[in-house]
Amino acid sequence: MTRLLLIGPPGAGKGTQAALLSQHFGIPAISTGDIFRYNVKNQTPLGVEAKGFMDRGEYVPDSLTNSLVRDRLSHDDALGGFLLDGYPRTIDQVHELDSILSDAGKRLDVVVQLTADSEELVRRLAHRAEVEGRADDTPDVIRRRLEVYESQTAPLIDVYAARGLVAMIDGLGEIADVTARIVEALDARGLTKDA
Ligand code: AMP
């Protein structure tokens, strides 16, 4: 049973690695960004509330994000393990996740921190803007998202490091190589496919 988080700046490759790790470990990859985008696309009440924040590169308020995650983690497929991609992103969300897990008598196994230098991030995000056409991949919004990550989310690494949970992984290079680095780091922590 593996419960892991993927933390890293926009463009670090979280979504790509999340999909591969989800397959490797047989656990659902839960991306709050994907859930928000789905809701925006379908113009649900949640999507209507979230859209303005997302378009500006700001975080959706914790109250909305936390209740979405609490609900999603209660689904059957997440009971045996999960990978959270892009959550938690604020200290308040860390506390909420702690409370969700302790209510269920569970704990986190590992926090994978994906790193990449800012030049590479901007290059990847600009490329993604061409390929996927995401509304929040314009230069101004990209800059804002990187700032928001630095001020609100980067500090979470220290919180989890103090708990001995962080595996820092270099996110540069070929996708398969990055996956191999993550799997190796998780193996070293005794987290194998069958664990
Ligand atoms: P992502 O695809 O993870 O980069 O997320 C895209 C956007 O969705 C972010 O820029 C935020 O506006 C919103 N979002 C995703 N996850 C969260 C979260 N955990 N807390 C607040 N906002 C989020």
Write the layout of secondary structure elements.
Elements: E1 3-7, H1 14-25, E2 29-31, H2 32-41, H3 45-56, H4 62-73, E3 82-85, H5 91-103, E4 110-115, H6 118-132, H7 139-162, E5 166-170, H8 175-188
Parallel strand pairs: 1-3, 1-4, 2-3, 4-5
Helix pairs in contact: 1-8, 2-3, 4-5
The structure holds adenosine monophosphate (AMP).
Provide a descriptive summary of the structure in words:
- By secondary structure, this protein is an alpha/beta fold.
- The protein has a single domain, classed as P-loop containing nucleotide triphosphate hydrolases (Rossmann fold, 3-Layer(aba) Sandwich), CATH 3.40.50.
- It is 57% helix and 12% strand.
- It is built from eight helices and five strands.
- A five-stranded parallel sheet has the order 2-3-1-4-5, sandwiched between helices.
- α1 packs across α8.
- The protein is globular and about 40 Å long.
- It starts with a strand and ends in a 7-residue tail after the last helix.
- Bound molecules: adenosine monophosphate.
- Adenosine monophosphate (AMP) binds next to α2 and α3.
Task: Provide the succession of SSEs.
Answer: EHEHHHEHEHHEH
CATH class identity: Alpha Beta
User: What name is given to the CATH topology?
Assistant: Rossmann fold
| Range of helix content | 55-70%
Ligand names: adenosine monophosphate
How confident overall, as mean pLDDT?
A: 94
The assigned CATH architecture is 3-Layer(aba) Sandwich
Task: Compute the separation of the termini in Å.
Answer: 6 Å
Based on Cα principal axes, name the global outline. globular
- Roughly what fraction of the amino acids lie in strands? 5-15%
Tell me the count of domains: 1
Radius of gyration: 16 Å
Strand order of the largest sheet: 2-3-1-4-5
Secondary structure category? alpha/beta
Strands, count: 5
Low-confidence stretches: none
Assigned CATH superfamily: P-loop containing nucleotide triphosphate hydrolases
Major sheet size, sense and barrel closure: 5 strands, parallel
Total number of helical segments? 8
